[in-house]
Amino acid sequence: MANTIISFEAVDKRYGDTIALNDINFELEQGKFYTLLGPSGCGKTTILRILAGFTSATSGEIKFKGQKINNLPANKRKVNTVFQDYALFPHLNVFDNVAFGLSLRKVPKAEIRQRVLEALRLVQLTGYDDREIAELSGGQQQRVAIARAIVNEPEVLLLDEPLSALDAKLRTAMQVELRQLQRRLGITFLFVTHDQGEALAMSDEIFVMNNGKILQQGNPVDIYDEPINHFVADFIGESNIVKGKMVKDYLVSFVGKEFECADAGMRPDEPVEIVLRPEDLVLTDVTKGKLTVTVDTQVFRGNIYEIMSHDSANNQWLIHAVHKATIGQKVGISFGPEDVHVMRFGESEEEFDARLETYEGEEE
Amino acid sequence: MKKRFSWQNLYLIFVFALLYVPIFYLIFYSFNRGGTMTHFTGFTWQHYTELFSDSRMIEIVVDTLLIALLSSLLATIIGTLGALQIYSVKRPVVKNAILSLNNILMVSPDVIIGASFLIFFTFLGFKLGFGSVLLSHIAFSIPIVVLMVLPKLNEMNLSLIDAATDLGATNFQVFSRVILPYIAPGVFAGYFMAFTYSLDDFAVTFFVTGNGFETLSVEIYARARQGISLEINALSALMFVFSLLLVVGYYFLNQYNSSKRTRKRQRLEATQIK
Amino acid sequence: MKRFNPAYSFLYILWIVLFVIAPLVLIVYQSFFDISGHLTLANYQAYFGSGTYLKMTLNSIWYALLITLLTLLISYPTAYWLNQTKNKQLWLLLIILPTWINLLLKAYAFIGILSQNGSVNHFLTFVGIGPQQLLFTNASFIFVAAYIEIPFMILPIFNAIDELNPSFVNASRDLGATNWQTFSKVIFPLTINGVKAGVQAVFIPSLSLFMLTRLIGGNKVITLGTAIEEHFLVTQNWGMGSTIGVVLIVAMVIIMFVTGERRKKGRKGE
After folding, report:
1. In chain C, where are the structural domains located?
2. Interface of B with C in 65-104 (CB under 8 A)
3. Mean of the per-residue pLDDT values of chain A
4. pTM of the full predicted structure?
5. Count of CB atoms within 10 A of residue A86's CB?
6. Which CATH number do you get for residue B172?
């Protein structure tokens, strides 16, 4: 890739016997919005800290525009960080916080002033320059932290769960704002979060992580629609996951029946897992449904009804329905072949991509 | 307003009286023409003029202040660096070991510090006097500075250091532009405590002084053992005023620093309400 | 902060070696020498062999206990009620202010107040009891020592009460406890660490207040501190003085260990 700006090659990080990162490989392109998504302790913040230079990798190479930067100290790297707790200097006011990096580099006073005010304008904090940090709300502090980072014109901006301290409404607003800011600046953002909704809403590309490994990389739609394994399917969105068997190409069996599906390229009778998203399940009559379930509970969520039900084999089924059902009643559920997502056990991302190519080629 | 009287307040008044009566008693008799601390016979400035013409006493006051200023300054520098060292130690075992060593002089009785320092100086063949007193005062002031600075370091958010480095600060710039301003109140409090420790010390100085060098405490002890001298009363009045100014000054400086922001915020809130 | 250069703290390490470790080692070393400089165990034999020293030690501990108890009795209510006043920080400052007055001056004041024809005796004469010998008594020593130590006891207790979450008190009342039950079952146990810190701050110095025993106690009370001062500065028997010093250090370590251990447990429980 010509415009690759950051690359990690076989990066490991160990603390004593604990493995924090295990063989991390990825590339970031210029001007895109990337998200590292995973539960806490999965290693996503470690990647950020290695990239920023706060900690070093045990092995592997970190490259910036093709140059190895493993040993470059943090204060020499052209990346800046927005910290989870903002890390605004309490003894400096808003202006001096934003001006901090520029003043260290002995940028002329007039230029500092102009650039700081411009950065504050970008984060919509015009007129707040002489406020004390303690006087700002959480959302405002968040913006100052962003302004302080972008005023240095970094080529990559690292954001470590920057929205986690905000309330739900403000968080949604900031998601939109961050995305707009990234487009306007045209620089690479690497965003860390454990909130899958946030990741799906903002990113060009998502890296799903668990236990120090990147499990799947792709754009939000791909990751949502084609989760590679149980963990990803469960972590991204809500899922019904059942055990099944691949009868042959485009035919899978689960809960004692056979169903059409859109997957192929597996061994006959290979054991697999099936993912059905709750919003893909449609409530219908028992006679018309592909599956028959009994409704257990029903919760109204405003736009949908969240229905929990079970089938005769006692598998739980979560359904997002537009119309309400009656508790205790038997209903049918239907779905299309492309709603059935088949996952093989232990398949890596490369294998998955390779398999996809073989039969998608056939179709065309 | 509800009734102000209560047994609680009476008790508090009693305790305050207990604490202050002896001090005011001293000051009161410093104006006694009679020359005793028991019968007040008339007002006079005589004991103050005597005090100011007592060149030996003036010299002792100057020496005491010099020791206090120098020892607290040096103890603050060494103690702050020590706190940074303790803070940077990662292994809890080592950290606790250093902290325990640090606190030994904090909890040791004065006589032990005095006696052991006396043995130490004699062992080295160090001449007792200004030098030994100064070194001793630095020594027993260092731990208090460490204990004042360390909590500030510990409460400092580690990501502040990361943030400064991230924004391009060198190690020295991180120290001078982020850490030092942050811990400044602790350093200042440490200096102040060290200063008062030094002014107040008697026992340690009593052990390690020699060759005619004296601080106020030692001199007061010597004179008090000989009986009442109203010159000491006059001196105590002056010292009380001095301490009062010092404490009130420190208090208001602290108040000013912490309220500067509060006031500004109140002003802003007031404008927002409009 | 892994980047801190240890070279800067050279002076601090030097201080630990020269002024913390070396004097401790030297005082132990010195305790094995007699007055004429011979290596001997005689000092320890004298200390543990003769009743005089042991009696003096017990005496000293007894007085320190009395002083600590008296100080605690006066200080706890003061700290408690001080917390309920308006401007409590200002009042606290006024409690601490006397500690900035030189200890010797305060002792000196009591020489005047308690003397044969001082103010207290004037008062006693006035109410018809007649003048009493007040100065140079054991009681006067305890009283003046307590007077000097009170602020050091109030401060930690005040802080402990100040940090006490008022919800606990409200919860206790809500659950039907009387004021006294709230105090004895909730407030006091939760502020016990403040009391311990205060006891630590008062008890150890009380063992060594030699200037007070001289100025106020009139040499009737001999504490460990007095004995050490006597041996070092009067009789010049440094070996014996050091031996008593070592005993005092051991006593101190025991007290620190006992209070420290409990505090650790308390922290774990929180």
Report:
1. 67-259
2. 77-79, 81-82, 84-85, 87-88, 90, 98, 101-102, 104
3. 88
4. 0.77
5. 23
6. 1.10.3720.10
